[in-house]
Every structure is written in C-alpha cells, then in structure tokens.
C-alpha cells in the first residue's frame, strides 16, 4: 500500500468524507482528492497536521510501518476523552458531570473510591 492509499484508508477508518477530513486539518477538499488519487503528494506540514489531528503514527502514514494510530499514554488518553466530552454538543449531562469531577476534593475522591469498591464487591458476591 502506498501513501495515497493509506490516506484514503485513514479517512475511511475515521468515517469522514473528503470535505470533513479536509476541514479538520484546514485544507481544501480538492487537495485531499488529489492526495488520494496520487496526483499530488502531501507536504511534510500536511503529514504532520494529519498525524497530530488524528493521532496517526507518522511512520505508518509515510511508510506503512507499524499501527495506523499512535499509542497514547494514560494522560493523553484522558485529555483526548475530556476534549471529546467537553467539546461535543450532544450531552449537557456529560459536561456537567465532568465539570463536577474536576471540582472534587481529595476526601470526595476517597469517598467515590470507597463506594466504587463497595459496588465491585457487591457485584463479585452476586456472581459467586
């Protein structure tokens, strides 16, 4: 598989139209089309944008080596999740809930942990 095919595969994996993909990285739809048919090759700057915006493994995009998506550490995963929840328009509850979590004190976190352990223990007893 060559670069043009990997770009198309990535876009389809993300379930985006050429226009949506282009909008997310700030270029024209025509450029995406030209990349996907091999008429033009993306610049290093465009490749970097794609990798940054969609968490793509640059080695995979350029050369086909490794996994399509870069592996995120726990903190990056949390930040990505929070960005999705807080950036979306679909659920006011999600935003309120995350905002509430951000304001918890250490003792409130300890209380939640205790309650979560109790729930887990209850589930284990019911299964056994």
How is the biggest beta sheet arranged?
A: none
CATH class of the largest domain: Mainly Alpha
Low-confidence segments, given as residue ranges, are none
Give the helix level as a range of percent: over 70%
How many individual helices? Answer: 8
Spatial extent as radius of gyration: 21 Å
Mean pLDDT: 89
Query: What's the name of the CATH homologous superfamily of the largest domain?
Result: lambda repressor-like DNA-binding domains
* CATH fold field value of the largest domain: 434 Repressor (Amino-terminal Domain)
Q: Tell me the number of strands.
A: 0
Could you say which overall geometry the principal axes of the C-alpha atoms support?
Answer: elongated
Structural class: mainly alpha
SSE order: HHHHHHHH
Number of domains: 2
Q: Could you tell me the strand content as a percent range?
A: under 5%
Report the CATH architecture of the largest domain: Orthogonal Bundle
What gap, in angstroms, lies between the N and C termini?
Answer: 50 Å
Describe the protein's architecture and organization.
The chain has 128 residues and is mostly helical. It has two domains: 3-63, 434 Repressor (Amino-terminal Domain) (Orthogonal Bundle), CATH 1.10.260; 74-127. The protein is built from eight helices and no strands. The longest helix is centred in the last third of the chain and has 22 residues, at 106-127. The radius of gyration is 21 Å and the shape is elongated. The relative contact order is 0.08.
């Amino acid at each position: 598989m060559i670069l043009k095919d990997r770009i198309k595969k990535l876009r389809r994996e993300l379930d985006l139209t050429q226009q949506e993909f282009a909008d997310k990285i700030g270029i024209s739809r025509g450029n995406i089309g030209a990349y996907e048919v091999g008429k033009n090759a993306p610049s290093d700057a465009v490749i970097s944008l794609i990798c940054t915006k969609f968490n793509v493994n640059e080695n995979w995009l350029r050369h086909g080596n490794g996994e399509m998506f870069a592996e995120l550490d726990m903190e990056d995963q949390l930040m990505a999740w929070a960005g999705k929840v807080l950036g979306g328009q679909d659920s006011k509850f999600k935003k309120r809930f995350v905002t509430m979590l951000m304001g918890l004190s250490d003792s409130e976190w300890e209380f939640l942990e205790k309650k979560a352990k109790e729930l887990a223990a209850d589930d284990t007893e019911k299964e056994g």
